[in-house]
Amino acid sequence: MPIALPTCPMPTDYTVLLRDFGGILTPFLGGPEQRVNRLGTRFGLRLEMPGLDIEDGGMIYLSRLLQGRQSSVILPWPLLDFDPGTPGAPLVSAAVTSGTSIPIKGLIAGYTVKEGQFFSLIHSGRRYIYMFTADGAANSSGDLTASIFPLLRTPLSVNDVLEIARPMIEGLVSPGDELSWQIGLDNAREFSFSVMEAA
């Protein structure tokens, strides 16, 4: 069960990370290079938090981070100034095994997804972050087939939930790195950490 990180206060800085499992094949005799795409490309965030004292929830934040090292954490994906509006109750409308598009139902008629807009998708209890790669408007029935990045990392089932209004990232805390924090002279805890999708 993922641990929910507190949403207040908000981080002071985000860095978006992309772990790409594809690569470029470069022939050693000078032939044309070839891009090879592989499944598994995923996102992460590096976060800088303001100094948190006990009253600001510093102890709780530290507790959740440490628990997240052994489980996983969820937190909102940063939309910053982008307002996704009111999409409705979007769900996957048909089973999908792979590819770069998903059929969606349950959108408000006419709702438009925007190229570069992030959303999360829940399958079998796990969240996955994706990005829409083209504008698309739902028809009068609230249906839309949307193109996405990266390649689907898991087969989708009918009625899997899309979180468009408030996407969430689920992942491991600082995978492969030490987790550290500073304690200032004013006893405030200062955290810097990353969250990377595990699948």
Properties at a glance:
199 residues; mainly beta; Phosphorylase Kinase, domain 1; Elongation Factor Tu (Ef-tu), domain 3; 2 domains; 6-stranded antiparallel β-sheet; 17 strands; 6% helix; globular
Descriptive account of the structure:
The chain is mainly beta. The protein has two domains: 3-77 and 170-196, Phosphorylase Kinase, domain 1; 88-166, Elongation Factor Tu (Ef-tu), domain 3. It contains one helix and 17 strands. The chain has one helix at residues 58-68; strands spanning 3-4, 13-19, 23-25, 34-36, 42-48, 73-76, 88-92, 101-107, 112-113, 118-123, 126-132, 136-137, 144-149, 161-163, 168-173, 181-183, 189-196. The strands form four sheets. Strands 1, 2, 5, 6, 15, 16 and 17 form a seven-stranded mixed sheet that branches. Strand 10 (118-123) and strand 11 form a beta hairpin. The two termini are 15 Å apart.
Mean pLDDT: 90
The secondary-structure element order is EEEEEHEEEEEEEEEEEE
Q: What is the level-2 CATH architecture name of the largest domain?
A: 2-Layer Sandwich
Poorly predicted ranges (pLDDT <50, ≥5 residues)? none
Tell me the strand percentage band: 35-45%
What is the CA–CA distance across the termini?
15 Å
Number of domain units = 2
Task: List strands and helices in order, with pairings.
Elements: E1 3-4, E2 13-19, E3 23-25, E4 34-36, E5 42-48, H1 58-68, E6 73-76, E7 88-92, E8 101-107, E9 112-113, E10 118-123, E11 126-132, E12 136-137, E13 144-149, E14 161-163, E15 168-173, E16 181-183, E17 189-196
Parallel strand pairs: 1-6
Antiparallel strand pairs: 2-5, 3-4, 5-17, 6-15, 7-8, 8-13, 9-12, 10-11, 10-14, 11-13, 15-17, 16-17
